Amino acid sequence: MKLQQLKYLKAIRDNNLNVSAAAQSLFTTQPGVSKQVGLLEKELGVRIFERRGKNLSGVTPIGKRILEQVEYMLTLEQKIKALASAHLDPSTGTLHIYTTHTIARYLLPNSVSYFTRKYPNITFHLRPTLPVQKKGVISKGHSDFSIVAHDVGADNDLIILPAYRWTLGLIVPEKHPLANVRKPTLRQLAEYPILSYEQGSTGRGTQDEAFYKIGIKPNYFMTVMDADVIKRYVQLGFGIGIIATLAARDTENSGLAYTNLNHVFDPSNAWICFSKDILLQNYMYDFLMSFSPHLTKELMESVLLQNSNGKVDKLFEDLELPIY
């Protein structure tokens, strides 16, 4: 058994059993991956993947258990490498940030600018989060942090910390009837076609709950997760937009008007998530605090000492989070 073979197994799983895509993600060839998987199955004496003709069609029951251990072993390999790297040169390393387009555009630039100036030898990678329908799936690599604006749910392998609170704002064309209404009501909003986030997302859930409480069913003309797409279609006159305030208030030279909606919609939480198996380096502590100032190294060290999510939550009970 070779570590490279285990990496092939993980890549195949992560690419929906598409061997060609798995090979491409590892910069190798499809026949080479198929051969190594076959050799590993022969060595172990079990089938890891189910097959239909030349294609993989599923994961066998024993394969699922093997893949769980593969994940653990590859994480351990990364952790060992991180330990050695930190010992040899603490100023080098890698940081992967998985986040949304809105967070990457409006909140991260200051942290990225600060971080890359202070740590020029650490490679910094921004990657998109998974779609909202897969919101329970968070990357758990040895240098991966996810910053998300939706509820993550329980995950015993993750540390999930409150990053900030975010609100919703209204965008309309400058000549729209609501453009000069300082505090529009939910009934006024429901009079127009609404462009907003997809059903199941936190931002959409906040809206649905507020409308439901007063017995109104709004007309969602278009739903999409990208705030900039929503803004574009509002510009074209398809309706009014309800999106994160971070994106909504950026209306310069857009022909749009922004209105705060804090009076009708409650704020939502955003989270920073990372694997419990990460060995936090000094530069990681620094990044966390640059993005969320309340996540000091002292607080983070206390978090890492807790043995339950409930105890972690208590550490944040009296902290006031920034609101955007």
Produce the secondary structure layout.
Layout: H1 3-14, H2 19-25, H3 30-44, E1 49-52, E2 55-59, H4 61-88, E3 93-99, H5 101-106, H6 108-118, E4 122-128, E5 144-148, E6 158-166, E7 168-173, H7 186-189, E8 194-196, H8 202-213, E9 220-223, H9 227-235, E10 240-244, H10 245-248, E11 256-260, E12 268-275, H11 282-291, H12 297-305, H13 309-315
Parallel strand pairs: 3-4, 3-5, 8-9, 8-10
Antiparallel strand pairs: 1-2, 5-12, 6-12, 7-10, 7-11
Structural notes for this entry:
One of its GO terms (molecular function) is transcription cis-regulatory region binding. This is Cys regulon transcriptional activator CysB. The protein is of the alpha/beta class. It has three domains: 3-76, Arc Repressor Mutant, subunit A; 93-165 and 270-315, 3-Layer(aba) Sandwich (D-Maltodextrin-Binding Protein, domain 2); 168-260, Periplasmic binding protein-like II (D-Maltodextrin-Binding Protein, domain 2), CATH 3.40.190.10. Helix content is 41%, strand content 21%. The protein is built from 13 helices and twelve strands. The strands form three sheets. It has a five-stranded mixed sheet. The chain has a five-stranded mixed sheet with strand order 9-8-10-7-11. The chain has a two-stranded antiparallel ribbon with strand order 1-2. Strand 1 (49-52) and strand 2 (55-59) form a beta hairpin. Helix 1 (3-14) crosses helix 2 and helix 6 (108-118) runs antiparallel to helix 11 (282-291). The relative contact order is 0.13. Mean pLDDT is 89; it is low at 132-136.
